[in-house]
Amino acid sequence: MNNAANQKDSSSSQLRVMDKVAVITGAGSGIGRATALRLAQQGAKIVLLDLIHNRTEEVEQEIKELGGESFFIDTDVANAERMQEAIQAAAKHFGRIDIVFANAGINGTLAPIEDLSPESWDETLTTNLKGTFLTVKYAIPHMKKSGGSIIITSSINGNRDFSGAGMAAYSSSKSGQVAFAKMAALELARYKIRVNAICPGAIQTNIGENTHRTPQVDKITIPVNYPEGSQPLEHGPGQPEQVADLVLFLASQESSHISGTEIYIDGAETLL
User: Fold this and answer.
1) pLDDT tier, 8 (very low <50, low <70, confident <90, very high otherwise)
2) 3-state SS string for the chain
3) 25, 62, 81, 193: which has the highest count of C-beta atoms within 10 A?
4) Sorting pLDDT into bands at 50, 70 and 90, what band is 7?
5) Could you give the CA distance from residue 259 to residue 88 in angstroms, rounded to a whole number?
6) How many whole angstroms separate alpha carbon 231 and alpha carbon 55?
7) Can you tell me the mean pLDDT for 118-142?
8) For residue 193, what pLDDT band results from cuts at 50, 70 and 90?
Protein backbone atom coordinates (compact mmCIF):
# COMPACT_ATOMS: atom_id res chain seq x y z
CA MET A 1 0.00 0.00 0.00
CA ASN A 2 1.42 3.42 -0.93
CA ASN A 3 1.84 6.36 1.43
CA ALA A 4 -1.23 8.12 0.07
CA ALA A 5 -3.43 5.14 0.78
CA ASN A 6 -2.00 4.96 4.28
CA GLN A 7 -3.67 8.29 4.99
CA LYS A 8 -6.93 6.37 5.15
CA ASP A 9 -7.88 4.54 8.33
CA SER A 10 -5.83 1.40 8.91
CA SER A 11 -8.77 -0.92 8.18
CA SER A 12 -11.26 -0.33 5.36
CA SER A 13 -13.98 -1.79 7.58
CA GLN A 14 -13.60 1.27 9.79
CA LEU A 15 -14.25 3.72 6.97
CA ARG A 16 -17.57 5.44 7.57
CA VAL A 17 -18.78 5.77 3.96
CA MET A 18 -16.80 3.01 2.30
CA ASP A 19 -17.65 2.53 -1.40
CA LYS A 20 -20.55 4.98 -1.22
CA VAL A 21 -20.95 7.34 -4.17
CA ALA A 22 -21.26 10.99 -3.17
CA VAL A 23 -22.39 13.78 -5.49
CA ILE A 24 -21.24 17.22 -4.30
CA THR A 25 -22.27 20.52 -5.90
CA GLY A 26 -19.99 23.51 -5.53
CA ALA A 27 -17.22 20.98 -4.98
CA GLY A 28 -14.30 23.12 -6.10
CA SER A 29 -13.99 25.40 -3.09
CA GLY A 30 -14.93 26.11 0.51
CA ILE A 31 -17.29 23.69 2.23
CA GLY A 32 -17.76 21.61 -0.93
CA ARG A 33 -14.03 21.08 -1.34
CA ALA A 34 -13.49 20.23 2.34
CA THR A 35 -16.38 17.76 2.24
CA ALA A 36 -15.15 16.08 -0.93
CA LEU A 37 -11.81 15.43 0.73
CA ARG A 38 -13.35 14.29 4.01
CA LEU A 39 -15.73 11.82 2.37
CA ALA A 40 -12.98 10.51 0.10
CA GLN A 41 -10.77 9.99 3.13
CA GLN A 42 -13.55 7.86 4.58
CA GLY A 43 -13.90 5.66 1.52
CA ALA A 44 -16.48 7.41 -0.68
CA LYS A 45 -16.21 7.81 -4.44
CA ILE A 46 -16.71 11.47 -5.24
CA VAL A 47 -18.56 13.18 -8.09
CA LEU A 48 -17.42 16.79 -8.23
CA LEU A 49 -19.99 19.17 -9.72
CA ASP A 50 -18.82 22.71 -10.34
CA LEU A 51 -18.96 25.43 -12.97
CA ILE A 52 -15.20 25.75 -13.32
CA HIS A 53 -12.94 22.73 -13.78
CA ASN A 54 -9.73 24.42 -12.72
CA ARG A 55 -11.27 24.90 -9.25
CA THR A 56 -11.60 21.14 -8.86
CA GLU A 57 -8.28 20.03 -10.33
CA GLU A 58 -6.47 20.40 -7.00
CA VAL A 59 -9.30 18.55 -5.25
CA GLU A 60 -9.10 15.71 -7.76
CA GLN A 61 -5.35 15.44 -7.20
CA GLU A 62 -5.72 15.38 -3.42
CA ILE A 63 -8.39 12.68 -3.64
CA LYS A 64 -6.05 10.65 -5.85
CA GLU A 65 -3.28 11.04 -3.28
CA LEU A 66 -5.68 9.72 -0.65
CA GLY A 67 -6.13 6.60 -2.76
CA GLY A 68 -9.66 7.60 -3.69
CA GLU A 69 -11.67 8.05 -6.89
CA SER A 70 -13.33 11.17 -8.26
CA PHE A 71 -15.13 12.30 -11.38
CA PHE A 72 -15.64 15.92 -12.44
CA ILE A 73 -18.74 17.19 -14.24
CA ASP A 74 -19.00 20.77 -15.46
CA THR A 75 -22.52 21.98 -14.72
CA ASP A 76 -24.71 24.84 -13.56
CA VAL A 77 -27.04 23.88 -10.71
CA ALA A 78 -29.62 26.43 -11.90
CA ASN A 79 -29.90 24.83 -15.36
CA ALA A 80 -32.39 21.96 -15.39
CA GLU A 81 -31.10 20.28 -18.55
CA ARG A 82 -27.46 20.43 -17.48
CA MET A 83 -28.27 19.16 -13.98
CA GLN A 84 -30.28 16.23 -15.30
CA GLU A 85 -27.41 15.30 -17.62
CA ALA A 86 -24.87 15.70 -14.81
CA ILE A 87 -26.71 13.45 -12.37
CA GLN A 88 -27.26 10.83 -15.05
CA ALA A 89 -23.56 10.94 -15.92
CA ALA A 90 -22.64 10.56 -12.26
CA ALA A 91 -24.87 7.52 -11.82
CA LYS A 92 -23.59 5.96 -15.04
CA HIS A 93 -19.94 6.51 -14.15
CA PHE A 94 -20.06 4.90 -10.70
CA GLY A 95 -23.20 2.79 -11.09
CA ARG A 96 -25.12 4.35 -8.21
CA ILE A 97 -25.66 7.42 -6.02
CA ASP A 98 -25.79 7.09 -2.23
CA ILE A 99 -25.02 10.58 -0.93
CA VAL A 100 -26.01 13.96 -2.30
CA PHE A 101 -24.55 17.15 -0.88
CA ALA A 102 -26.52 20.06 -2.39
CA ASN A 103 -24.03 22.70 -1.43
CA ALA A 104 -23.64 25.16 -4.32
CA GLY A 105 -24.92 28.66 -3.65
CA ILE A 106 -24.28 32.38 -3.79
CA ASN A 107 -24.81 35.34 -1.51
CA GLY A 108 -25.94 37.34 -4.52
CA THR A 109 -26.73 41.05 -4.37
CA LEU A 110 -27.09 42.70 -0.98
CA ALA A 111 -29.49 45.63 -1.14
CA PRO A 112 -32.52 47.09 0.64
CA ILE A 113 -35.73 45.50 -0.60
CA GLU A 114 -36.82 48.71 -2.32
CA ASP A 115 -33.49 48.88 -4.18
CA LEU A 116 -33.15 45.18 -5.00
CA SER A 117 -33.84 44.51 -8.67
CA PRO A 118 -36.17 41.66 -9.65
CA GLU A 119 -33.31 40.24 -11.71
CA SER A 120 -31.02 40.10 -8.66
CA TRP A 121 -33.78 38.48 -6.60
CA ASP A 122 -34.28 35.85 -9.31
CA GLU A 123 -30.56 35.14 -9.61
CA THR A 124 -30.21 34.35 -5.90
CA LEU A 125 -33.40 32.32 -5.59
CA THR A 126 -32.69 30.44 -8.81
CA THR A 127 -29.14 29.46 -7.87
CA ASN A 128 -29.79 28.63 -4.22
CA LEU A 129 -33.34 27.29 -4.08
CA LYS A 130 -34.03 26.05 -7.59
CA GLY A 131 -30.50 24.65 -7.73
CA THR A 132 -31.21 22.59 -4.60
CA PHE A 133 -34.51 21.40 -6.02
CA LEU A 134 -32.92 20.30 -9.31
CA THR A 135 -30.05 18.51 -7.56
CA VAL A 136 -32.43 16.53 -5.36
CA LYS A 137 -35.06 15.96 -8.06
CA TYR A 138 -32.72 14.31 -10.51
CA ALA A 139 -30.88 12.28 -7.85
CA ILE A 140 -34.02 10.65 -6.40
CA PRO A 141 -34.54 8.03 -9.15
CA HIS A 142 -30.97 6.81 -8.63
CA MET A 143 -31.34 6.59 -4.83
CA LYS A 144 -34.76 4.97 -4.49
CA LYS A 145 -33.56 1.38 -4.75
CA SER A 146 -30.92 1.45 -2.02
CA GLY A 147 -31.74 4.60 -0.06
CA GLY A 148 -29.16 7.11 1.06
CA SER A 149 -28.59 10.54 2.51
CA ILE A 150 -29.24 14.01 1.10
CA ILE A 151 -27.66 16.98 2.85
CA ILE A 152 -28.49 20.57 1.92
CA THR A 153 -26.33 23.57 2.77
CA SER A 154 -28.71 26.18 4.12
CA SER A 155 -27.66 28.92 6.56
CA ILE A 156 -28.39 30.55 9.90
CA ASN A 157 -29.66 33.45 7.79
CA GLY A 158 -33.36 33.09 7.21
CA ASN A 159 -33.70 30.38 9.84
CA ARG A 160 -32.32 31.70 13.14
CA ASP A 161 -30.72 35.02 12.25
CA PHE A 162 -32.40 37.86 10.39
CA SER A 163 -29.87 40.63 11.06
CA GLY A 164 -28.08 40.42 7.72
CA ALA A 165 -28.77 43.83 6.21
CA GLY A 166 -29.69 43.63 2.54
CA MET A 167 -29.94 39.84 2.53
CA ALA A 168 -33.69 39.48 1.89
CA ALA A 169 -33.18 37.34 -1.21
CA TYR A 170 -30.44 35.20 0.31
CA SER A 171 -32.31 34.64 3.57
CA SER A 172 -35.50 33.77 1.72
CA SER A 173 -33.65 31.18 -0.34
CA LYS A 174 -32.05 29.67 2.76
CA SER A 175 -35.33 29.52 4.65
CA GLY A 176 -36.90 27.86 1.63
CA GLN A 177 -34.18 25.20 1.59
CA VAL A 178 -35.05 24.11 5.13
CA ALA A 179 -38.76 23.88 4.29
CA PHE A 180 -37.87 21.90 1.16
CA ALA A 181 -35.68 19.52 3.19
CA LYS A 182 -38.54 18.79 5.59
CA MET A 183 -41.00 18.15 2.77
CA ALA A 184 -38.50 15.90 1.00
CA ALA A 185 -37.69 14.00 4.21
CA LEU A 186 -41.30 12.91 4.61
CA GLU A 187 -41.82 12.19 0.93
CA LEU A 188 -38.66 10.11 0.59
CA ALA A 189 -38.74 8.26 3.92
CA ARG A 190 -40.47 5.27 2.27
CA TYR A 191 -37.37 4.84 0.12
CA LYS A 192 -35.02 5.05 3.11
CA ILE A 193 -33.65 8.34 1.82
CA ARG A 194 -32.86 10.75 4.62
CA VAL A 195 -32.86 14.51 4.02
CA ASN A 196 -31.32 17.07 6.36
CA ALA A 197 -30.17 20.68 6.17
CA ILE A 198 -27.10 22.16 7.76
CA CYS A 199 -27.13 25.82 8.76
CA PRO A 200 -23.60 27.21 9.03
CA GLY A 201 -22.85 30.55 10.59
CA ALA A 202 -19.74 32.50 9.63
CA ILE A 203 -17.41 30.06 7.86
CA GLN A 204 -14.13 31.04 6.28
CA THR A 205 -14.78 30.42 2.57
CA ASN A 206 -14.57 32.35 -0.71
CA ILE A 207 -18.34 32.93 -1.01
CA GLY A 208 -17.56 36.64 -0.81
CA GLU A 209 -16.45 36.42 -4.43
CA ASN A 210 -20.09 36.18 -5.50
CA THR A 211 -21.40 38.74 -3.03
CA HIS A 212 -22.37 42.13 -4.43
CA ARG A 213 -22.98 44.62 -1.64
CA THR A 214 -24.59 47.84 -2.78
CA PRO A 215 -23.88 51.16 -1.04
CA GLN A 216 -27.60 51.44 -0.22
CA VAL A 217 -27.18 48.71 2.44
CA ASP A 218 -25.64 51.32 4.74
CA LYS A 219 -29.00 53.03 5.17
CA ILE A 220 -30.65 49.92 6.67
CA THR A 221 -27.73 48.51 8.67
CA ILE A 222 -28.46 48.04 12.37
CA PRO A 223 -25.27 48.13 14.47
CA VAL A 224 -24.63 45.01 16.54
CA ASN A 225 -21.69 44.96 18.93
CA TYR A 226 -20.16 41.87 20.54
CA PRO A 227 -17.74 41.97 23.49
CA GLU A 228 -15.15 40.04 21.49
CA GLY A 229 -15.42 38.53 18.03
CA SER A 230 -18.72 37.18 16.77
CA GLN A 231 -18.70 33.57 17.98
CA PRO A 232 -18.88 32.82 21.71
CA LEU A 233 -17.32 29.38 21.24
CA GLU A 234 -14.28 30.64 19.35
CA HIS A 235 -13.25 34.14 18.39
CA GLY A 236 -13.36 33.91 14.63
CA PRO A 237 -15.23 32.17 11.82
CA GLY A 238 -15.57 28.42 11.63
CA GLN A 239 -13.60 26.37 9.13
CA PRO A 240 -14.92 24.42 6.14
CA GLU A 241 -13.40 21.25 7.61
CA GLN A 242 -15.64 21.59 10.67
CA VAL A 243 -18.70 21.65 8.43
CA ALA A 244 -17.31 18.71 6.45
CA ASP A 245 -17.23 16.65 9.64
CA LEU A 246 -20.94 17.35 10.15
CA VAL A 247 -21.73 16.37 6.56
CA LEU A 248 -19.79 13.13 7.02
CA PHE A 249 -21.87 12.32 10.11
CA LEU A 250 -25.13 12.97 8.23
CA ALA A 251 -23.90 10.95 5.25
CA SER A 252 -22.97 7.94 7.38
CA GLN A 253 -25.05 5.30 9.14
CA GLU A 254 -24.25 7.03 12.42
CA SER A 255 -27.16 9.38 11.69
CA SER A 256 -29.53 6.67 10.43
CA HIS A 257 -32.46 7.95 12.52
CA ILE A 258 -32.01 11.63 11.69
CA SER A 259 -34.09 13.12 8.87
CA GLY A 260 -36.05 16.31 8.27
CA THR A 261 -33.83 18.25 10.63
CA GLU A 262 -31.90 21.50 10.36
CA ILE A 263 -28.63 21.45 12.28
CA TYR A 264 -26.88 24.68 13.22
CA ILE A 265 -23.10 24.87 13.11
CA ASP A 266 -22.20 28.37 14.18
CA GLY A 267 -20.24 28.26 17.43
CA ALA A 268 -23.34 29.54 19.28
CA GLU A 269 -23.13 32.75 17.22
CA THR A 270 -26.92 33.03 16.80
CA LEU A 271 -27.67 32.55 20.50
CA LEU A 272 -26.39 36.02 21.39
Assistant:
1) very low
2) CCCCHHHCCCCHHHCCCCCCEEEEECCCCHHHHHHHHHHHHCCCEEEEEECCHHHHHHHHHHHHHCCCCEEEEECCCCCHHHHHHHHHHHHHHHCCCCEEEECCCCCEEECCHHHCCHHHHHHHHHHHHHHHHHHHHHHHHHHCCCCEEEEEECCCECCCECCCCCCHHHHHHHHHHHHHHHHHHHHHHHHCEEEEEEEECCECCCHHHHEEECHHHHHHCCCCCCCCCCCCCCCCCECHHHHHHHHHHHHCHHHCCCCCCEEEECCCHHHC
3) 25
4) very low
5) 25
6) 30
7) 98
8) very high
- Best CATH choice for the domain 16-265 from the list 2.130.10.10, 3.30.1300.10, 1.10.1370.40, 3.40.50.720: 3.40.50.720
Q: Which amino acid is at 234?
A: E
Residue 176: count of CB within 10 angstroms of its CB:
18
Active site residues: 170
